[in-house]
């Protein structure tokens, strides 16, 4: 009995100790392992910076001593993450000049993919604003930036030989009836600069060219790419799911996408191109297109999804010729029709469907990234009563924090999950200020979901750290993460 009591007491003490160790530092995302040692550090000068390949390329170890800090890292990525942790500790020390405890942080990410998607298609994001956004991403150890470059409301990628993308597709007359024209297009050089800027911070840029749907802006410039060409098509000024799907039977589109992919190859070193694939109402478009009807009859295809499968396979082979692979938003009917090929990476996003999608993608051999609407859609309001365009659910900080990318399931059912991604659809995010307001502080929660093992995560500790992080971010980035019901910039 005494022995049992001793064991219980020790267990209670070790839980208490673990909690105390965690509470010593205000690092987000929470490191995988923290051990406090004797003493107090009043300086965090970097005393040594060593390569230790045995740690693994994205792992690092940071030792805080009374004289300063020692870093060892497994690779370029691990070194970047270790230096970021050191920055956060330096910010903590600046707020507590009496000193912070000495200790050893042994750290590496739970998942290799910790992404954020921004949507310059709906509202153009000038390059200097994107770089500020990237600075904050790096401070929270995100490592993938997905650029949603095309949609019904705008096309932002220049493509040689297609000047109307700039003169027509990159401009719209107004947004949601506000009467204010909006436009923007990146230059090839700006995008290359962004890629280099991100690479220096450990972030890979993945371009997204949404297809076959979400293409009204393209239709405004090149109506001949579509099943039912309408020369009066305008770039969309509202939201919603449109009927502008490119027609696979127009030879022009294959020439066009070859030019698009050439441009992507020259700008983005990433081996991935996101081909969208969400919200494509085939039944209202390809299903009725005379060219499609005839083609399906000739080929003996049973339905429009067989045609889609051929379309995506052709896109994949065009990308393969340029050293790239497609990735997709997951749509269940596409999966049922075997449109995805084994090994294709997909994102789960639709509200409520992530648990079933985890099961389905495991069976199909599809690597999965969790962008579950109910946790990761950071364009939704974060405090009840904030503007929701009449339909968006409120996703509180705690709701975002609750995400366990594995949904509590065992390793053997979830070993195809490669990470998490926050998405900021921008219909209602017209400026950097709007974008950052909704992104933070919920992105800190998603960062921790993607990085930290569940056994070191705690909502209470996260809230404590976040209070400190607000001060760090204000001082380091001149950005205020405080959120109240009233302090959101208004959307008009
Ligand atoms: Zn067609």
UniProtKB/TrEMBL annotation:
CDD domains named among the record's database cross-references: GH20_chitobiase-like (cd06563)
UniProt GO cellular component terms: membrane
GO molecular function term, any single one: beta-N-acetylhexosaminidase activity
Domain named Beta-hexosaminidase bacterial type N-terminal: residues: 43-107
Segments forming domain Glycoside hydrolase family 20 catalytic: 111-453
Catalytic reaction(s) noted: Hydrolysis of terminal non-reducing N-acetyl-D-hexosamine residues in N-acetyl-beta-D-hexosaminides
Keyword Hydrolase: yes
EC class name: hydrolase
Protein family membership: Belongs to the glycosyl hydrolase 20 family.
Name under which the protein is recorded: beta-N-acetylhexosaminidase
Biological source species: Akkermansia muciniphila
């Amino acid at each position: 009995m005494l022995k049992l009591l001793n064991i219980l007491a020790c267990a209670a003490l070790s839980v208490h100790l673990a909690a105390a160790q965690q509470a010593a530092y205000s690092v987000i995302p929470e490191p995988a392992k923290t051990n406090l040692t004797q003493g107090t550090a009043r300086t965090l000068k970097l005393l040594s910076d060593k390569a230790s390949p045995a740690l693994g390329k994205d792992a690092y170890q940071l030792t805080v001593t009374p004289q300063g800090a020692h870093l060892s890292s497994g690779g370029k990525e691990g070194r970047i993450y270790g230096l970021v942790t050191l920055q956060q500790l330096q910010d903590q020390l600046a707020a507590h000049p009496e000193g912070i405890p000495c200790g050893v942080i042994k750290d590496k990410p739970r998942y290799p993919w910790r992404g954020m998607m921004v949507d310059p298609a709906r509202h153009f994001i000038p390059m200097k604003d994107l770089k500020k956004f990237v600075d904050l991403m790096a401070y929270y150890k995100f490592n993938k930036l997905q650029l949603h470059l095309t949609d019904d409301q705008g096309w932002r990628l220049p493509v040689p030989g297609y000047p109307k993308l700039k003169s027509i597709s990159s401009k719209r007359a107004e947004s949601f009836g506000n009467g204010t024209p909006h436009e923007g297009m990146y230059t090839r050089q700006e995008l290359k600069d962004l890629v280099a800027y991100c690479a220096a911070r450990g972030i890979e840029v993945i371009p997204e060219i949404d297809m076959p749907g979400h293409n009204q802006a393209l239709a405004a410039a090149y109506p001949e790419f579509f099943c039912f060409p309408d020369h009066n098509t305008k770039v969309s000024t509202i939201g919603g799911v449109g009927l502008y799907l490119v027609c696979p039977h127009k030879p022009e589109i294959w020439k066009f996408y070859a030019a698009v992919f050439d441009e992507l190859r020259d700008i983005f070193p990433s081996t991935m191109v996101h081909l969208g694939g969400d919200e494509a109402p085939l039944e209202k478009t390809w299903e009725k297109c005379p060219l499609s009807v005839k083609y399906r009859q000739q080929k003996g295809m049973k339905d429009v999804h067989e045609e889609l499968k051929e379309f995506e396979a052709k896109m994949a082979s065009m990308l393969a010729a340029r050293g790239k692979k497609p990735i997709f938003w997951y749509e269940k009917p596409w999966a049922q029709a075997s449109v995805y090929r084994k090994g294709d990476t997909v994102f789960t996003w639709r509200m409520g469907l992530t648990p079933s999608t985890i099961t389905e993608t495991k069976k199909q051999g599809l690597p999965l990234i969790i962008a579950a609407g109910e946790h990761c859609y950071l364009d939704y309001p974060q405090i009840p009563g904030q503007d929701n365009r009449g339909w968006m659910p409120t996703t509180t900080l705690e709701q975002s924090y609750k995400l366990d990318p594995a949904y509590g399931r065992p390793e053997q059912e979830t070993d195809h999950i490669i990470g998490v991604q926050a998405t900021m659809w921008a219909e209602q995010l017209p400026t950097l200020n709007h974008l950052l307001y909704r992104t933070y502080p919920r992105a800190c929660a998603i960062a921790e979901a993607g990085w930290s093992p569940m056994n070191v995560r705690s909502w209470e500790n996260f809230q404590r750290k976040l209070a400190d992080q607000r001060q760090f971010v204000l001082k380091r980035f001149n950005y205020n993460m405080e959120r109240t019901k009233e302090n959101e910039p208004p959307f008009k």
